[in-house]
Structures are given as structure tokens and as C-alpha cells.
Amino acid sequence: MMLKDKVAIVTGSGGGIGREIAVAMAEAGAKVVINDIGASLGGEGFSTSPAEQTKAIIEQKGGQAVINTDSVSEWENAKKIVQTAIDAFGRVDIVVNNAGILRDQIFHRMTPEEWLSVINVHLNGSFFMSRAAAEHFRKQESGSFVHITSTSGLIGNFGQANYSAAKLGIVALSKSIALDMKRYNVRSNCLAPFAWSRMTSSIPAETPEQKARVERIMRMGPEKNAPLAVFLASDAAKEVTGQIFAPRMHELFLFSQNRPIRSVHSESGWTPEKIAEVALPAFRANFVPMERSGDVFSWDPV
């Protein structure tokens, strides 16, 4: 019961990874706010059914949960979601920023609407939820944020400029929260999931290579991500903050973060020509390759 007496908000927990995290946190002793608007990945339709299904699973296992169907993409809604936890359970200890949508499109065809809708849910939503909970965390001098990022942002992918930008932005948001709120014993970490879910079902599977990649991903159920989320939210991780993790089947990864990897110095300063002549050859061997997530994580999960 690593989360006994704690209250967790899990956004986008009507299905997939969010549902598995919500259920696992309830099994670990937390009281859970299930937040989900019940819409498709394309934003069509609104239903309480997904959240009700998650609630039923939690209650069947002896846990406690309440439902909120507000969208995280609005500041006023984020405050309502946090207030749901306060009204139902008297406090809030954990926020899992999992809610997400997809609007995949090749960059030169991406519309402003496709860009903004994804940024609003993923990045703005993570800020709004974190900011709404921050006042409670600060006053009680405790709290844990678990933000869901993606290797699409950490490494890169085709056709996901909006999603990748949002997910990498979440990493910077998490680090800033970790730095700013450390004095209040508030922790903030990122989790980059590997799983077959609604969010990955749009991955192309046309070429033999693409089909092989999708087959690998389909072997990884969303439940594989829940144990790490529970750990990061628990007091067992009280010294862990500002980090980026990924669970992949039975593997766990700790990601590096941007640091200088090569430098050159010129006593007389630099001109564009001198950069081309001296700096470029010195840097070239250390350039980051043009890889996608599937290129880096190319082996079969075990």
C-alpha cells in the first residue's frame, strides 16, 4: 500500500495508460479522481462511459474513486478538477498529467488548429493542472507530479511536430517545477510510456519495417507503465525529482538531459567563415543523428 491515505488525480484515465495508472494507484491505497472527457482521439463525442468503467474497476477491487469530466485545456476547468479532489477526499497529493489527443500531420501541411489543439491539451493542460494543484502542495509541503512525455519529443518522429513539441515542452515544465518547488518537498518527474493504446494506433504499418515495429509495440500493454507511475508518486521516491524515465515491457530507462557535448575555442573570436572552416569539422563527429524513436528503440521488447 505505497500510496495509502494519498489522493491522486489522473487525467485522461478513462482508458489505456491512464486507466491502468488510476487502477494501480487505487490498488496501492490511493483515493482517485478519474478525469476524462470521454471523447475520441479526434475530439468527437463526449461520454462519461469511459470514466465510469474505470471507476467500476477500481470499486470492484475495493478502492475509492470519483469522476470529473472537465477538459484540462482550460485553466478554470483545471481548478475544478483539483477542487473535485478536495471536495471528495479533503486533499490532493498526486497529479498524473496523462490526458492527450493526436492530430498527426506532416509539418508543411499542419494547420494552426491542429497545432493549437494538441498544445492546449498536452502542454497547457499539464501546466494548468500542475499550477492548480501547486497551491495545495505548497501549503501541505508535499506532493508529486508525474507528467507523461513521449519519445516522440525526446527523440523524434515523423508527422508529429505538434505532439513532439508539446511532449518535449512538458519535460522542461517538469524540470522547472522540480526546481521551483523543491523547497516545499514537491517532486516532479516525467514518464515516457511504451504501450499499444489509442495514442499509438495511428502509427503507420504499411512497409515490412513499419509492420514489424507495430508488432513490437502491440506486445507492450498499457499496464506495463503503471508500476513506475505508482513508485514515482510514492514516498519511496522522495529523493527522485527532475528526472525522465521510461518503462518498456520489462525494461526501465533513465534518460539523459541536454548538456554540452563538444566545445571549440578561438582566441580571436569567430567569423562565419572560421566557423565553417574550424568549428564545423570539430563538431561534425558529435552531431546528433536524424533518428526517430523506432530507430533508437529498435530491439524486441522482452
TrEMBL record:
Pfam families: adh_short (PF00106). Gene3D superfamilies: NAD(P)-binding Rossmann-like Domain. InterPro entries: KR_dom, NAD(P)-bd_dom_sf, Peroxisomal_Beta-Oxidation, Sc_DH/Rdtase_CS, SDR_fam. Residues 6-211 form the Ketoreductase domain. Belongs to the short-chain dehydrogenases/reductases (SDR) family. This is NAD(P)-dependent dehydrogenase (Short-subunit alcohol dehydrogenase family). It comes from Roseococcus suduntuyensis.
